[in-house]
């Protein structure tokens, strides 16, 4: 259950990052509210996951999901540049996440 909570927390991190971008510096109400709600939910689920998953593993997986997810959202929804170097960087993050999961003794 902790791993499911951790993955959902990472997905919520992607949502709040996107909403923060859409809030235009917290000058738009709805995206600002979504940002705050998703941040609280993401941190809450991360905290829950850390009850049984080590700090290093949980935090690495959480930030990795957020980083790769935000990258994908940026490319797909915001038209940000996709090139070989950025793709390889995201792929390396994914490989690191898989290794962290495989190495976890939690």
TrEMBL record:
GO MF annotation terms: transmembrane transporter activity
Compartments, record wording: Cell membrane
UniProt cross-references to SUPFAM superfamilies, sorted A to Z: Multidrug resistance efflux transporter EmrE
Keywords per UniProt: Cell membrane, Membrane, Transmembrane, Transmembrane helix, Transport
One GO term (biological process): xenobiotic detoxification by transmembrane export across the plasma membrane
Gene Ontology CC: plasma membrane
Pfam families hit by this protein: Multi_Drug_Res
Mode of membrane association: Multi-pass membrane protein
Top-rank taxon: Bacteria
Annotated InterPro entries: EmrE-like, Small_drug/metabolite_transptr, Small_multidrug_res
Protein name (database record): Guanidinium exporter
Biological classification of the source: Bacteria, Pseudomonadati, Pseudomonadota, Betaproteobacteria, Burkholderiales
């Amino acid at each position: 259950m902790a791993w499911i909570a951790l993955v959902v927390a990472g997905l919520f991190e992607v949502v709040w990052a996107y909403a923060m971008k859409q809030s235009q510096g917290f000058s738009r109400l709805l995206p600002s509210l979504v940002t705050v709600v998703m941040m609280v939910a993401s941190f809450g689920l991360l905290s829950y996951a850390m009850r049984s998953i080590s700090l290093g593993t949980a935090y690495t997986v959480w930030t990795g999901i957020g980083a790769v997810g935000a990258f994908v959202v940026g490319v797909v929804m915001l038209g940000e540049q996709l090139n070989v170097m950025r793709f390889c960087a995201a792929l390396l993050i994914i490989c690191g996440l898989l290794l962290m999961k495989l190495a976890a003794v939690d």
